[in-house]
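Q: My labmate handed me this sequence with no annotations at all. I'd like to see what the chain might look like in three dimensions before we decide whether it's worth expressing. Could you predict it?
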Amino acid sequence: MPKRKDIKSILIIGAGPIIIGQACEFDYSGSQACKVLKEEGYKIILVNSNPATIMTDPDFAHSTYIEPITPEMVTKIIEKENPDALLPTMGGQTALNIAMSLSRRGVLKKHKVELIGASFKAIEKAEDRELFKKAMENIGLETPKGILAHNMQEAHLSLKKIGLPVIIRPSFTLGGTGGGIAYNKTEFEEIVSRGLDASPVESVLIEESVIGWKEFEMEVVRDKNDNAIIICSIENIDPMGVHTGDSITVAPALTLTDKEYQRMRNASIKVLREIGVETGGSNVQFAINPNNGKMVIIEMNPRVSRSSALASKATGFPIAKVAARLAVGYTLDEIQNDITKTTPASFEPSIDYVVTKIPRFAFEKFTGADNTLTSSMKSVGETMSIGRSFQESIQKALRSTETDLDGFTNIIIPNYTRGEDKESIYEVLSRPTPERILYIAQALREGLSIKEIHNASKIDTWFLSQIEEIINIEKTLNKRSCPTNKEELFYLKSKGFSDSRIAFLTNTDPDKVRSIRRKLDVKPSYKRIDSCAAEFEAKTPYLYSSYERSSIENDYYSDESFVTNKKKIIILGGGPNRIGQGIEFDYCCVHAAYALKTIGYETIMINCNPETVSTDYDTSDRLYFEPLTEEDVIEIITNESKNGLIKGCIVQYGGQTPLKLSGFLEKNDIPIIGTSPKMIDLAEDRDKFTKLIKSLKLLQPPHGICNLSSEAIKIADRIGFPVLVRPSYVLGGRAMAIIHDKETLKSYVNKMVKLFGKSPILIDSFLSDATEVDVDVIADRNTTIIAGIMEHIEEAGVHSGDSACALPPHTLSKQVIKEIEKQSKIISKALNVVGLMNIQFAIKNSNTGVDIYILEVNPRASRTIPYVSKSTGNQFAGIAAKIMAGKKLSNFKIKSWKNMKNVSIKEAVFPFSRFPGVDTLLGPEMKSTGEVMGLAHNFGHAYAKAQISSGSKLPSSGTLFVSVKNSDKEKVVLVCKEMISIGFNIIATSGTSSFLKNKGIEVKTINKVREGRPHLVDSIKDGLVQIIFNTTEGQQSIKESFSLRRAAITYGIPYYTTIAGCKAATEAIISLKREKLGVASIQSY
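A: Here is what I predict for the chain of 1085 residues:
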């Protein structure tokens, strides 16, 4: 059936900011849907609050609304645009929940908007735990025994019937938000309470435990003619009890018998039919009891999911593209397979390789966080690898995680001494953590049997035997030097061993291993992802490496890369998402690929992140899905050098990952285009950079560099406390801290030496009460243009990635802005910047006027580039890529940020709700997972939109709690007066209360937590506080106010910890009182 012609315009709801449980896989799926439906001739209206995504670029939709994704704001967009249809299946749980809310409120019916992709009934049946359970009973499928509870009383009654342990699953949530596993009554009450709060319909399913069972997923696509295909099966290596997003997974499923697979396949299709999914993709999750083969269904997602992105990249089958076309009337047999160009989409994919996904975690960012993995997702990103065997695939995946692994790297087991009691080994094996896979390898080294490890971990013995074989090979290598026999070396490489791992095991150098390998002509061959196991020729160069013999005798390398003779540029991606290096860098890589194609270059992308647009098979001309390590990258470049001309590599767009490779590439005579690695290193090297800044007669905060704690104390004595300390060459403020005394400084330096080895530690005087400013610059060798000047709303001391910021600056004087521009151009010229650069300044009032300090210079793409691009209407990443390739900046028409007709606010989004017990206080180490943007004609409205988009709902009335440090008391007076003038009551702790009363402000005094009850936290729990202004200093004050910050997170109270933030929130509330929020597309600005 051809596409529907009764629909002219389609509203697509995006997923919003990158958060745990809903990451950039929805940028990937949403971008595909926008692109495909636009090609089909529909008018596309997009709403998404995330500026860092490709899909919110103005070219992807006809009308792009960077607005809060709430029922109220989406209603306004519907009223303005009058779409014919709404596609809710590409924006994760956010989009589904908004669609359901609009439908229940009658908005869709009133405006005659049809839900496509999934009906209201289908979404409800899949997402409502009780309806889903009944639906499964209708088709004869078992689910774990479970009872739906709407309050704590019902939950306790359910517990009596089911018994502990239980799994708690909130309805209509993502990534297991609010859920968990309860082993005792205290845990049960905590998780149920959290789950009821997290569920938009206030219900949780209390489910019998199937912990330890094997977990599988099926990715299924079905059309309206009941054509249904399985895209791929996915098996979790970790057993049930670990959220599938946090589990190491493989595709295809490797331990199912054919009978079990067919049974699961048939059940998946039955589920889609029963739920009513007939125009798109779905993910169905199963558990199998390993003891008797009993199969139960866990859940299904009636939308494109996290696993859909993985399945798409694993098979080459573009699920989101196909689902979008099915939603507008096509059937599977009418859609062509993009990879083969000959088979229809109804041709079920098959794969002749093994894909491994390993999640990436950020527990090191959250002091006090429990790193036990449960049914509530905690990972911030993931990496994927492809090999011809499980062993090759998993070893490649481990070295792709960007955690300094080169395979099954040795790990110290806590509290274990070799030869003594092995209880401590069983303990680390039985507790699911990010390191458990390495502990398994270490347990095998310590002599534990597969049976013992299986009993402790419940991981299938097939996987354990595969790891055991790798460890046995390692043991033989430990006793000898590097193999010099071609057969033996090839065998090791086919098992996934990296050069660096072989070097470690044989006590030699990776360069020596590489040299021996090259002499013996042991090199990888490159295979194509073709979606059909080589049954048809693949037209798309989507490649992975493998060490595998050909079926032809003496032919080791059946290579499918078919290198072209074109002029080419290689773009190195950022690897897995993590805090400090997120989707913003992928955005830049994608735009480099798009831009360089237009000026005649073949673009080659190297990356290993399955969630991103950069690893879509049609983003670049050629895609290598490979680890970003020295060995893997140099092999690809060597392969591509066989034909054509490599102009160079772009290392400045993928964050710290490719930058770390720049020295190695330069040493191997690989050209790097754009700003030279020498200048990038100069900006990172504190000694060299200080000399440069001095020669330019610019200011830096007093500072020093040390490797020992004794040196650190001398520096602190010279520059004075507090000091800002951090290791060099890190991203996202990793391990950065503000330190107030000598003992803490000594302890910090000793810890950093253990963690980072010989890397110098940087110590700066901390500039309290300074305003931080970010500047993005675009330049060639002759011209420098300021892309944007962003004023941070939080004071210096909060990481730039965690601070809200305003473009144009909100309070900076014209004179200060002029001086910032001047200094930015001086630095750009001195570093000979070609492409992008980011500078961070601190503006501090002094006795002589205003001092402008340079905090940091990064001659590369920064995380603010997507935000600045969308705020100003310039595609800076694409323009800079062309400049790096040789074009002149003067040839491009750049719209000045000074001519902006709107105010743009960027706000960070945090994962604190995932980590109970972690302090939410912000500091110099980055903790945010994503960002949102507020656009309006005035600061107040723009800030309000950014707050709403980040999940912080500003109140229009009620009670404000105030407690500020002494240095802020005078500054908070005006804020309090303004809040009272618009109808707020004020409560405060004794010190602040007394000060405000002396200033003539009406305020009620309330107890601190340590002063007895009823205290502030009691008032928060009782709903008596609507907004909090709280600034602290000193360890005691921070410690005392911890329970206040956690209560604010738990009960969703807006909470501001800097005076600048308090002022911004006040201005936003006043602005909202004066005038309601409006909506406008970025095209209209």
